[in-house]
Amino acid sequence: MSKYDVAVIGSGPGGYVAAIRCAQLGLKTAIIEKYSVLGGTCLNVGCIPSKALLDSSHHYEDALKHFEEHGIEIPGDIKLNFKKMIDRKASVVEQTTKGIAFLMDKNKIDVYTGTGAFKDATHIDISGEKNQTIEAKNTIIATGSKPASLPFIKLDKDRIITSTEALSLKEIPKHLIVIGGGVIGLELGQVYRRLGAEVSVVEFMDRIIPTMDGAQSKELMKVMKKQGVKFYVSHKVSAVSKKGKKITVTATDKNGKEVSFEGDYCLVSVGRKPFTDGLKAENAGVKITERGMIDVNDHLQTNIKNIYAIGDVVRGAMLAHKASEEGTLVAEIIAGQKPHIDYNLIPGVVYTWPEVASVGKTEEQLKEAKVEYKSGQFPMRALGRSRASGDTDGFVKILSDKNTDEVLGVHMVGARVADLIAEAVVAMEYRASAEDIARMSHAHPTYAEAVKEAALSATEDRALHV
Ligand SMILES: Cc1cc2nc3c(=O)[nH]c(=O)nc-3n(C[C@H](O)[C@H](O)[C@H](O)COP(=O)(O)OP(=O)(O)OC[C@H]3O[C@@H](n4cnc5c(N)ncnc54)[C@H](O)[C@@H]3O)c2cc1C
What else is known (predicted)? Predict the structure, then answer.
């Protein structure tokens, strides 16, 4: 029987990063993945394929709507080859997952294909093409999550679908009804809107992206409405039915009135749930919470001391980079180091266009916590860079402590803010004040100038270009 210092169950961005870091630290490491390709949700049916389709559909929309204003004329009609778009996405996924296989090889990590199930706290049965058992001093559970649904919805995965199917459709929906105005619903809704579908987003809360700053919800909804997406907030979906190709979604609006939507596809994007099926955690004595998550302490250690859990299967934001940070943390803890994650500084991003990005506390959270703060906001339309590219929607908002000026939260909507948020994370990691950012030189012309200007605005209201 093969023996390891660490066995990692699951090869998503939590698991594979944990495995690499363990190997770097000299630990003999195995990774177990039930699918024949590595990379988990993120690489196969999450972050990477959704971004590939967002980029492709963005090019298509630019060609249709914006080339002309740049003086680019295309003789004849612009045609969409949807199959090719989906095939390109598949090849991006393939290249990326192959990259992970290469990294496992390079780091001398043994890869086992099959479902990993605890036999006891130090033995894992792997059932795949070959059934075998390995022994591990430590195990890291990184089994991720699956799409959640509502109890009355029967996902047929044909027309009533989750994000997984939405990434590989064979045709463009005529009318896509999206249940849930969170990140995944909005990203995929925007993809199909750009490709010509009518898109209706039905959201239970009174705003979209409800965990982000209220100003971002408002701005993104305004811009997406201009792009033709229809929004129905404060609508509680009560039924979804299918007759032939027709899908009917029934909901109750905020006045208690029943409304219905008819479409040919319904994307159910109401969140994700932790996944532990087949893991047989009980054989090792590992505690799972009522909500199906693996229970962990601050060191991501389960109630069994040599078993850890990371990523979507534990509490916290379901984000790839959060899973990876946790993977690194656990590997270093096993190797005897004392690392730390500041969860307040894990950024959140929506890859619609304009993009939406946040780090730290929202204005709503600061109000609730009764923290005295200052707010500085700068509109993208006032930037030369935004006018040059034509991306004038959005803003950067910086919230800083009223007394100390320490940056408490940064919230952005605009072109490339998914990349810009890194500046805010660095600033907050080093506990910068708004004035510190305001006094740093930002290259001109860049979208990053909006960060400086928002910081100037938070610091005695002295933005220069408004
Ligand atoms: C459409 C979509 C878009 C997304 N976009 C983004 C984004 O842009 N940015 C971002 O940060 N996050 C994004 N996410 C979320 C991100 O994909 C997850 O947060 C991330 O994948 C979680 O990583 P993980 O390692 O915890 O689990 P996962 O990536 O879910 O990986 C878990 C792996 O464990 C395997 N497994 C499960 N049980 C067993 C078992 N018993 N034995 C062996 N293997 C097992 C599974 O097959 C899977 O491969 C997106 C998600 C979706 C669905």
Answer: The active site is a redox-active disulfide bond.
